[in-house]
Amino acid sequence: MIKKITCIECPVGCQLEVETDQSGHVIKVTGNKCEKGPVYAKQETENPMRILTSIVLTEGLDLKMVPVKTNKPIPKAKLMEAMAAVKKLKLTKQVKVDETIASDFLGLGVDLIATRPASFNSH
Questions:
Q1: Which CATH number is correct for 53-114, 3.40.50.1000, 3.10.530.10, 3.30.450.20, 3.30.750.24?
Q2: In angstroms, rounded to a whole number, what is the distance separating the alpha carbons of residues 72 and 9?
Q3: Each residue's pLDDT tens digit, 64-102
Q4: What is the pTM of this model?
Q5: Please, what is the end-to-end C-alpha distance for the chain in angstroms?
Q6: Residue range(s) of every CATH 3.10.530.10 domain in the chain
Q7: Checking phi first, is residue 80 left (phi over 0); if not, alpha (psi -120 to 50) or beta?
């Protein structure tokens, strides 16, 4: 089977053709202009990963919601489970940018971190 994807590893944006076997494993990649293309194609085809970005509700802070993200990509197949877990969180303490909200999030070896500071309400 041949799948066409656009490589996003560098600004060139090569149009890759990825040939896979019946089990979905990459056999051959063509169309790349650098060595990053085949690596990206294999990762994206066999185990796609994404940075999760979301918001966490707060209580008693100057923001009603704090934007968060995972500090490393997680498997794309885990995104819905991760979003459900984020929805259950409530932040009640001040946070700084890059401060960890949840360590080893879902046991995936990544941290959920704040991308904006939040402090206690002044009134």
A1: 3.10.530.10
A2: 16
A3: 999 999 999 999 999 999 999 999 999 999 999 999 999
A4: 0.84
A5: 62
A6: 53-114
A7: alpha
